Each structure stands twice: as structure tokens, then as C-alpha cells.
Amino acid sequence: MNSTLARQILLPILLIAFTDIILQPDTAIAISSVASQVPGQYRLPVLAGGVLLAALSLLAFTLVGSVLVTRFTWLKPVAGLVLVVIGAKLAFDYFRG
Question: What are the CA-CA distances from residue 21 to residues 15, 38, 45, 56 (Å)?
Fold first, then answer.
């Protein structure tokens, strides 16, 4: 029973973490663009704080998301439908001009 529960929780966590790692370059660009606007002596603490906050947020949202998806089975189809609607709206707006 414990191995099944661990597998049910571990797989969503790994999948969400993999997706988050793929999406990290935009976070790095955002943190560096913010840090480039501050004076030189504060740049390193701003970069370090931004990276630390991003990592903590990634961990927290991964854990919360995996627990929610595991507990509420209806959440996956609803989230998928929301993604399809957002993608369709983005495509419509892009091609509309």
C-alpha cells in the first residue's frame, strides 16, 4: 500500500518538476532583468534572493499541485480544458492580428 501511495504522489511531483525545469529560462531572464536595474553593490543579493525565492516557490507549488491533482481527480480534465481554451484564445488573437 505504501509503495502504491508513494508512486501516486512521486510521479506527479516528478512530472511537475520536469515541466518547471523546462520553463526555468524565463524565470532566469526575469530575475536578471530586475537585477540589472539595481545598483552594482545590491545586484548579487537581488540575484541570490530572486533565485532562492523562485526555488522555494517552485518547490511549494509543485508539492501543492501534486497533492491537489492526486486528491481531486476532476482537476486534471478541468485544468486541461483551461489550457486548451487559453491556447485557442492565444492562437485566435495571434492570427486575428
Answer: 10, 27, 23, 13
